[in-house]
Amino acid sequence: MIRIHIDDQTVETKGGGSILTEAGKLHIRIPTLCYHESLSPFGACRLCVVEVKQGRRWDLTTSCNTEIVQGMIVRTDSPEIRRSRKAAAELLYYKYPRTRAIRDIAERLGVRVTQTKEDARECILCGLCVRACQEIVGVNALRFEDRGPDHPGEPPRIGYLGDSCICCGACAFICPTGYIRMEPVGADRRMIWERVFEMGACRVCGKKFAPLAQLEYLSRRSDIPLAQVMTCITCREAGIPASVVDEKDWVSMHQHR
């Protein structure tokens, strides 16, 4: 077991966690915008800084991607920590003053913000969408693009690879600012990243219930025939067997919808 000290509380753990995760177990709230417990840490927002004692000196470090070690002494609140978090929030607010999520967290950290009803929902390059697409969904439809010296004046951005996207909506769900949106287009299509996807029809009731690209991906990943995947939640919960529709009839029905 690894023993560490956080805010004068002793913690014993098996190890492998970060300062942020161990502080969370103690119900110590540390602000962050770019962290999610199911994804690898990124340390982009710099809001989660804490202090770790090194000899006689206290050093600032991001808590999300700093792994705990035996005997570590951590404090999560001090004048220096508050100054650092406020400075990071000020920088974010300076870059994205019209985005509500940024204004809200900046105000909580002591930044004086201008009150407005506007919400531009800008991309803050937190990387949550890229990591969710790569690490959870596994399709790699998103990536960071550093414009570099060949594109002077153009900032980094999130690049979208439409041919890989399955319209699962994971990136829209995890986006902290609402920049990424998945919206219906009529009754039988959805749009994300300005690309429109056809919805697949349930082989039992015929209802359009999920993006066809997503269902095809699930079929490939699970080695389950596509026709068996094409059953909506309502029909599954009702216990209606998919076999009530012959596979050839389902294919014909789907092609004409």
Entry keywords:
single chain, 257 residues, alpha+beta, Ubiquitin-like (UB roll), Alpha-Beta Plaits, 5-stranded mixed beta sheet, 4-stranded antiparallel beta sheet, 9 helices, 30% helix, 20% strand, disordered C terminus
Please characterize this protein's 3D structure.
By secondary structure, this protein is α+β, with helices and mostly antiparallel strands. The chain has three domains: 1-122, Ubiquitin-like (UB roll); 123-180, Alpha-Beta Plaits; 199-257, no CATH class. It is 30% helix and 20% strand. It has helices spanning 19-25, 79-95, 100-108, 128-137, 170-174, 212-222, 226-229, 233-237, 247-255; strands at 2-6, 9-13, 49-54, 57-62, 73-75, 142-145, 157-160, 182-185, 189-192, 195-201, 208-211. The strands form three sheets. A five-stranded mixed β-sheet has the order 2-1-5-3-4, sandwiched between helices. The longest helix has 17 residues, at 79-95. The radius of gyration is 23 Å and the shape is globular. The termini are far apart. Mean pLDDT is 89; it is low at 244-257.
Number of beta-strand segments:
11
Mean pLDDT, rounded to whole units? 89
Work out the count of structural domains. 3
Amino- and carboxy-terminal Cα gap: 59 Å
Question: Largest beta sheet: what is the strand line-up?
Answer: 2-1-5-3-4
Helix fraction by DSSP (H/I, runs of at least 4): 25-40%
Order of helices and strands: EEHEEEHHHEEHEEEEHHHH
Q: What would you report as the Rg, rounded to the nearest angstrom?
A: 23 Å
Secondary-structure blueprint:
Layout: E1 2-6, E2 9-13, H1 19-25, E3 49-54, E4 57-62, E5 73-75, H2 79-95, H3 100-108, H4 128-137, E6 142-145, E7 157-160, H5 170-174, E8 182-185, E9 189-192, E10 195-201, E11 208-211, H6 212-222, H7 226-229, H8 233-237, H9 247-255
Parallel strand pairs: 1-5
Antiparallel strand pairs: 1-2, 3-4, 3-5, 6-7, 8-9, 9-10, 10-11
Helix pairs in contact: 2-3
